[in-house]
Amino acid sequence: MNKERKEICLSGSGGQGLILAGIILAEAAGIYDGFEVVQTQSYGPEARGGASRSEVIISKEKIDYPKVIKSDILLALTQQSCDKYIQNVSEDGMLLADSTNVLKMPSFNGRIYQHPITDDAIKVIGNQLVTNIISLGIIVQLTDIVTRDAIKKALSARIPARIKELNIKALEHGFKIGEKL
Predict the structure, then answer these.
(1) pLDDT in tens, 103-114
(2) Topology annotation, domain 5-180
(3) Could you read off the pLDDT of 143-173 as tens digits, one per residue?
(4) Does the pTM exceed 0.70?
(5) Could you give the strand order of the β-sheet that contains 5-13, starting from the edge strand earlier in sequence?
(6) Alpha-carbon dihedral angle through residues 171, 173, 175, 176, given to the nearest 10 degrees
(7) How many Cα atoms sit within 13 Å of 2 on the Cβ side?
(8) Across-strand partners of 71?
(9) What is the DSSP code string of 9-34?
């Protein structure tokens, strides 16, 4: 991390596992990498299928304000979330858009990465429910926001044993995508 405070917004729709992804990222940063961390979340009134957002602040210093002011990183898994949250990304920030669902890219001066994350979850891993974990792998690979070791440990600690192997495979796939973007 090159600046003291990094602000991340993981957005999409309810049921895509964004809250879990935010918790895993926060635990990786706070428990395993030793940063100060705050994680918050919000859902639309419909929950599954409605708007969903998880925000994570990672800092080397004490966090005095627990809300994202300007995102350094925006993950947008839906067109609606991309359109809604892109204006809150810093000028030198980064957008990771799931090109499966985000078909119209916004005008944005920062770095834009596009990949059909949901399609990969289905075709490569065999389960759409790991779209969130693939996304985390991509973000970690592109930004070094947390170490690979920390994100693996946080994932393993948070995911039930019966689906751990599937999720580790999804995370590793995300790292590979990130290497190519």
Answers:
(1) 999 889 999 999
(2) Pyruvate-ferredoxin Oxidoreductase; domain 3 (3.40.920)
(3) 999 999 999 999 999 999 999 999 999 999 9
(4) yes
(5) 36-43, 51-59, 5-13, 71-76, 89-98, 111-115
(6) 170
(7) 4
(8) 89
(9) EEEEEBTS-HHHHHHHHHHIIIIIS-
